[in-house]
Automatic annotation (TrEMBL), chain A:
Family according to the record: Belongs to the ABC transporter superfamily.
A Pfam family: ABC_tran
GO cellular component terms, semicolon-separated: ATP-binding cassette (ABC) transporter complex, substrate-binding subunit-containing
Transmembrane spans: none
Name this polypeptide is given: Glycerol-3-phosphate ABC transporter ATP-binding protein
Organism: Devosia geojensis
Keywords: ATP-binding, Cell inner membrane, Cell membrane, Membrane, Nucleotide-binding, Sugar transport, Translocase, Transport
From TrEMBL, chain B:
One GO location term (cellular component): plasma membrane
Role played: Part of the ABC transporter complex UgpBAEC involved in sn-glycerol-3-phosphate (G3P) import. Probably responsible for the translocation of the substrate across the membrane.
Primary location: membrane
InterPro entries reported for this sequence: MetI-like (IPR000515), MetI-like_sf (IPR035906)
Occurrences of domain ABC transmembrane type-1 (ranges): 71-292
Similarity comment: Belongs to the binding-protein-dependent transport system permease family.
Keyword annotations of the record: Cell inner membrane, Cell membrane, Membrane, Transmembrane, Transmembrane helix, Transport
Name the record gives this protein: sn-glycerol-3-phosphate transport system permease protein UgpE
Lineage start: Bacteria, Pseudomonadati, Pseudomonadota, Alphaproteobacteria, Hyphomicrobiales
Length: 365, 305
């Protein structure tokens, strides 16, 4: 155990957003009033499509953007009017933003130097961080002499060297190739396990979110769609937006109508018995659809994708495309009729007008 | 195809040869003339072949003319101008690009517009300003009626006078504001990732610290390029030092060189002496280019490795 690990674990603070809003111009609000709490020591992933305000949210926490309203409380202190350096946050940027003219050592040490830490202490700290991140051999190099993954590690080192209470990441893996992204994901998870810093991690990649997060905050146009554990988000999506955003392939959603006794698809096929009236959206995950057992729903196969571990069939059902995940090697030709069944326990029902989940109405919720 | 390329090669070589002759021809004539005596020139006109009087002529530059002193003037003026221009352009560009100032776009456009107003076309107004820098204050005092009050209280209206003509400061100041330099730095700053500034803020560095620790070292090449360019233009500047200086001791070398030809009509100028002077005066900018030429190219291309 390094001293720095324990120091960061001790410093880990919670972040509370209280009615935080942001607008860059009077015309539209990027973030409508938002309340949320990022618990101390937790790894919270902020997930959403690009342009939904994730970076804006993170930069407001960091102090790089001013809030337009509301309060941000970090470790019990209101910080929304403080300069970044007084908030105890550190940040890792998407393109690393290392200082190109400085050595790795100087990059990592820069914040300590600005803070006026004496040189011997500075060297000790940087070397401890370098050992932790496997950078010891690289301290004399320039950023331009490093690989993408190494630069990433330097950026992380620069962030943790100050022993921050909060670590902020803005899409730090999106510039890496697939293999490296996978490796860095493991490294990040490992790092978090060791130092236990409160972490806010922004991404648009649901795999990163599902694998790294203690809890995921799903953002849509600046609004919180759902804020829960990866498991809950996968199994109990709170809205159609979340259902369609999570999972690969994502959940199938179909418009259905209830006549008081059954729910019917647009073409009249009955999906499930339910005493409901009105318009709804029905959701079912591709891997939950049972296929090839002479089920009641008639669909037509459009095309199939063989992924090695499994195949994904895309079928027309009542004018919508439904994806079905099947074990690999199912022998079936394209453009043939399929019969499917939707197990009731696996169904998700959403309000057609609001898109919110209707827990307890049928099936899974 | 091969034949084509071959004839293309020959054509290209011919063009290059022509270009070299065009550039080196006058230089050769300068050198040849500088190495002949005045009498030889009077006898045979243009000097096509070098003579043996080069060192003699150079010695005469040092003993008979004020060129050495004037070169010191030039050095002072060109260096100060280069330093001041670089500093001002750098700061202006930082203000425009580094901060979300509301009028940054307008200011940038106005600065660019000054490129179309070189000193040569505003030399008369510049002369007026330089002859009394405080003239606007006088005007303001008159216009606001304040001078009437002052006249009543102190007995005479206030009239301030401060001429910078015939001073080194007067040679430098009007040329320091540099639209091209500001543009150069603006374009360079725009190539830097925006997150760099944010990263520095997270590290606790304010705008001034960021400028010294990060921006300045990164801007080394455009700095050197602009420095060389403004130094050269300051050294070879003719019109403004000619107009603004009134004593030979204050003149710059280029002006002094031109003054070596006699004002009297009909006399044949001492061309060997003048050309020897030209050679000496060119040495400093030549050395400058030789030393810093790699920055010149890299800085203008704006790609930092
Ligand atoms: N500095 C800015 N000025 C004006 N609008 C901005 C600025 N930064 C971001 N925006 C707008 O705010 C919205 C959210 O941006 P951002 O937080 O960067 O999204 P994300 O990180 O989720 O992709 C976008 O519509 C973007 O155009
Ligand atoms: Mg972003």
């Amino acid at each position: 155990m390094n001293a720095i690990d324990t120091a960061i674990r001790a410093a880990a603070s919670s972040i509370a957003l209280k009615g935080v809003t942001k607008s860059y111009d009077a015309a539209h609000q990027v973030i409508p009033p938002m309340d949320a709490e990022f618990r101390a020591g937790e790894f919270t992933v902020v997930l959403g499509p690009s342009g939904c305000g994730k970076s804006t949210l993170l930069q407001m926490i960091a102090g790089l953007e001013r809030v337009s309203g509301g309060a941000i409380v970090i470790g019990g202190r209101e910080v929304q009017n403080l300069e970044p350096k007084h908030r105890g946050c550190a940040m890792v940027f998407q393109n690393y933003a290392l200082y190109p003219h400085m050595s790795v050592f100087d990059n990592v040490a820069y914040s300590l130097k600005v803070a006026g830490m004496p040189k011997p202490e500075r060297i000790e700290r940087v070397e401890a961080v370098a050992r932790m991140l496997g950078l010891s051999e690289l301290l004399a190099r320039r950023p331009s002499q490093l690989s993408g993954g190494q630069r990433q590690r330097v950026a992380i080192g620069r962030a943790i060297v100050r022993e921050p209470g909060v670590l902020l990441f803005d899409e730090p893996l999106s510039n890496l190739d697939a293999q490296l992204r996978h490796d860095m994901r493991l490294e990040l998870a490992d790092l978090h396990r060791r130092i236990g810093a409160t972490t806010a991690f922004v991404t648009h990649d649901q795999v990163e979110a599902m694998t790294l997060a203690d809890r995921i905050l799903i953002l849509n146009k600046g609004r919180i769609e759902q804020f829960d554990t990866p498991k809950a988000i996968y199994h109990r999506p709170a809205s159609v937006f979340v259902a369609k955003f999570i999972g690969s392939p994502p959940m199938n959603v179909l418009p259905v109508t209830g006549d008081g006794s059954v729910l019917r698809l647009a073409d009249g096929q009955v999906v499930v018995e339910a005493p409901l009236n009105g318009n709804f959206v029905l959701g079912i995950r591709p891997e939950d659809i049972v296929f090839g057992t002479g089920g009641p729903l008639k669909a037509r196969l459009r095309y199939r994708e063989d992924l090695g571990s499994h195949s994904v069939l895309a079928a027309d059902l009542a004018g919508e495309v439904v994806r079905v995940a099947t074990p690999f090697g199912v022998d079936i030709a394209e453009a043939t009729d399929l019969s499917l069944s939707f197990p009731q326990a696996r169904l998700h029902l959403f309000d057609a007008a609001t898109g919110r989940a209707l827990p307890g109405a049928i099936g899974a919720q | 195809m091969v034949e084509n390329a071959h004839s293309l090669n020959i054509a290209a070589s011919l063009v290059l040869l022509l270009g070299i002759t065009y550039i080196l021809g006058p230089l050769y004539l300068t050198f040849a003339t500088a190495s002949q005596s005045y009498e030889y020139l009077l006898r045979s006109g243009l000097a096509w072949i070098p003579g043996d009087q080069l060192f003699n002529n150079i010695a005469r530059i040092f003993t008979e003319t004020r060129i050495p002193l004037q070169m010191l003037n030039s050095l002072l003026v060109a260096l100060s101008q280069a330093v001041a221009t670089c500093a001002l352009s750098f700061l202006a560009a930082y203000a425009i690009v580094g901060f979300r100032a509301r009028w940054a776009g307008v200011v940038f456009a106005l600065i660019l517009a000054t490129i179309m107003l070189p000193l040569d076309i505003r030399v008369i107004t510049t002369y007026q300003v330089a002859s009394n820098v405080l003239a606007p204050v006088n005007w303001l005092l008159d216009a606001t009626g304040l001078n009437g009050v002052i006249g009543e209280v102190f007995g005479a209206p206030l009239h301030l006078e401060w001429s910078v003509l015939n001073t080194h400061f007067g040679f430098i100041a009007p040329l320091v504001a540099h639209g091209t330099g500001t543009f150069l730095f603006c374009q360079f700053f725009r190539t830097l990732p925006a997150d760099l500034f944010k990263a520095a803020r997270m590290d606790g560095a304010g705008p001034v610290r960021f400028m010294f620790d990060i921006l300045l070292p990164l801007a080394r090449t455009p700095f050197a390029a602009l420095f060389v360019l403004t130094f050269l233009s300051g050294w070879t500047q003719y019109l403004w030092p000619l107009v603004a200086s009134s004593t030979p001791d204050m003149q710059t070398a280029v002006v002094g060189l031109a003054r070596l030809s006699p004002d009297t009509d009909g006399a044949v100028p001492d061309f060997p002496l003048i050309m020897a002077g030209a050679l000496i005066v060119s040495i400093i900018p030549l050395a400058m280019i030789a030393l810093l030429q790699r920055y010149l190219v890299r800085g203008l291309v704006l790609s930092e490795k």
